[in-house]
Amino acid sequence: MVIHGNIFNSSTKLLNTEAGHLNFKPEDFEPGSRGLELDGARIYRFGETAIVLDIINIAATHRLATQAKIYALDHALRLALQNHATTAPAPGVGMDIVPGDCNLSIFFNPETLSATRICQLMMSCWQHASGAQARDQGTIHNLQVSYGGRSGPDLEPLARQLSLQPEALVERHMQAEYRVAFLGFQPGFAYLHGLHATLQAPRRQTPRQRIPANSLAIGGPYTAIYPAATPGGWHIIGSYQPGSLLFDPARDTPSLLRAGDRVRFERSC
Amino acid sequence: MLSVEKATAVCTVQDLGRPGFMHMGVSKCGALDSNALCLANLALGNEPNAAAIEILRGEITLNCVESCWVAVTGARANPRLLARGKQPVQVLLNASPTYIPAGGRLQISNRGAAGCSYLAIAGGIDCPEVLGSRATDLNAGFGGIEGHMLGSAEKIQPYPLAPKQKHFLPLECQISARFSLREASPDNVIAILPGPGYAAVQNDLTQIICAKPFIMGADSDRMGARFKCANTRATAALARGDKAGLMASHGVARGAMQLLPDGGLIVLLADAQTTGGYPCIANVIEADLYKLAQLPPGDSVQFIQVNFAQARSASVKQSAALQRAKYSMQQYMRKQSPNHE
């Protein structure tokens, strides 16, 4: 099966790939159906406006490596759609490519784009996505943070809860290199993978009414910085000393952090 | 220019929303009832996507400091130009351009503080585009008028009229409601498509959701319409889905129906976050989403299951009606144009 369609700039190599053995049937993509399984992932239609790829049967220890394949898929899709992150799509096209935790969704307008074509594109890009390649890529950010004190009120209680000295918690938190798994919750809010297993803690029983902007926090398996003030339930262990704002809608690239980027925390003096 | 005298409703500047930045955590936002927004704009000869005021569940009173042309749409709007001097109250027709003289006071109330109306101003509201849209993102605090709800003394400035509008609007003031796309009050039947996963549990869940009516919660807002589910069968079904590891965070958009661990049920709307970890058990079809903004909290809602073809045909029917309205407006304006031969 050759994938046609000028909407995807069919000159792109990826789209001219033979995908004949995929055994694609439109009914596989009826919402509510299980979809189609392909190379360790399930591709299905979600409602009228989304196509989702979900990696299946991931061992807990392999989530980081698995996520690298999502970065590769994200990259390939953006290339194929000529829909680079910094430019908004034409009005009415309204397409969004949204990485999640070991999954990726494409949101589209079914009146202007064909769901079948997007499914085919997803399948083709997935078959060519190489996690090994994406594993070594990603922009590196060294972010200045301060731990504890007034801007990290949960550092000591959390350390007690985890049976650690606060300083040991900080050391362990700083040692790791993190990777942006995906963004969500707020503009510029990046869920960082790579938190040491001994630092993972369920969210607070009672969420805070207001967490200040730039708070550095731990929630479940993730660590993150809140770009703007918000209510929230994560443990606040410090704050980011912004060199660059995490999110600035007036900037060419509004979000400082992107899925696949690498983050290291450095103590500010 | 218009100045807000008083607003009890959630009043925001909205257009058709801000797609393209979900991967950066930016919500789409935009009008809850997008067809009603387009219609208000079309009635004035604006672009369908022009920024207008969304009035959600409540009342707004505006003072028109300078004269302007406005059009109001929305199922439960009761728009009127308040009495001044010898002039009695003038009721505005739905989706019809109305001239408001300088000093006129315009009041729009959603009946019983329910429903969602749109006030479009000829020219469209002048405010900066942020990431390609003028829609207010209340959570992020940008777009619209400085990213917040319209409050007392807020000033709203329209763009200057296009030449074609200057010509046709004065001819239009006696014409009765130009467009009517749908019944004044939507019915309470909301069609859903079953969710994609949880194979063993999906059928159970769909049956539970469609078995009896749900009451729309008073905490429903632009982020989502909220219901209480509190069904032990549903919770048990979910627990099985959870065991299968189906709770990883994923992209979500308006229409997604999430079942929460506390038994709550939420249908995400325009201001929804871009990713969510709660299981999505169904999707409200595109054509029925506006009902969740137009129905008042406290009303009961009956979910029914449809198939994909039914969902699409409902949606196509709606957009065809809008296209017809757009076409007839273009035809009309061409006819009124002084250059028409």
Overall description:
The complex is a heterodimer of chains A (269) and B (341). Chain A is an alpha+beta fold and 269 residues long. Chain A folds into two domains: 11-134, Gyrase A, domain 2, CATH 3.30.1360; 140-267, Cyclophilin. Helix content of chain A is 20%, strand content 26%. Chain A has helices at 63-81, 115-128, 131-135, 155-161, 166-175; strands spanning 36-38, 41-46, 50-55, 96-99, 103-107, 140-147, 178-183, 190-193, 208-211, 215-219, 222-225, 230-232, 235-240, 262-267. Chain A has a seven-stranded mixed sheet with strand order 8-7-14-6-13-10-11. In chain A, strands 1-2-3-5-4 form a five-stranded antiparallel sheet, with helices on one face. In chain A, helix 1 crosses helix 2. The N and C termini of chain A lie far apart (60 Å). By secondary structure, chain B is of the alpha+beta class. Chain B contains six helices and 20 strands. Chain B has helices at 34-44, 163-172, 199-211, 232-243, 291-294, 308-336, and strands at residues 2-7, 10-14, 52-56, 59-64, 68-73, 80-81, 90-91, 98-100, 105-109, 116-121, 155-156, 189-194, 214-215, 224-228, 250-251, 256-259, 264-268, 275-276, 280-284, 300-305. Chain B has a seven-stranded mixed sheet. In chain B, a hairpin with a 4-residue loop joins strand 16 (256-259) and strand 17. In chain B, helix 1 (34-44) packs parallel to helix 6 (308-336) and helix 3 (199-211) packs antiparallel against helix 4 (232-243). The longest helix of chain B is centred in the last third of the chain and has 29 residues, at 308-336. Chain B is elongated. In chain B, 52% of the residues are buried. The mean pLDDT of chain B is 86. The interface between A and B is large, with 58 and 53 residues.
